[in-house]
Design brief:
176 residues, three-stranded mixed β-sheet, 6 helices, 3 strands, 53% helix
Length: 176
Amino acid sequence: MSEKDTTLTMRLTSNRKEQWSQLADERGFNGLSDLIRFAVTQVENGNVDPSPDSGTSENGSPDVSGIPDDLETRLKRIEGKIDDVNDGVDVVKREATSSASYERKSTTPAREVVMGQLPSGNGPSDGVFPGVIAQNLGADKSAVAEMLQRLASELAVVKTSDEHGPDGETVYWKED
């Protein structure tokens, strides 16, 4: 995209400006400047008669008869394809969101369930490793470990030890 570094000022009636702005909106241009750039390019490319009288119709509105007839059809087809792509993206987003939500629900056990699996005691020898709880619940070991870490940080009754099990797991228990 080229850098635009010059401004062109035009004088016209407010009615004409409104007509051109409406035309730009109706034809899908990004404003009046884009419509004017397009029209000048059409003249430069020889697609429109450049004589001074050919630019307006009898009612004073811009004459777009020089624009290829199928351009509007092609634009509508492109817009339809873009809408189809957007719809597809929305479906994928919904699927990904619902899938991720389902995955979290199915692999992360509830707080209360994990708390119910913690043994009561006075120290690490009374505790249990996340892998044991995960096996008992049929849940993901890392999800259980994450839940236990969260519980230990939020609840004073859940204790952990600096001692680690054979797989580097931390031991957890509920304080009596």
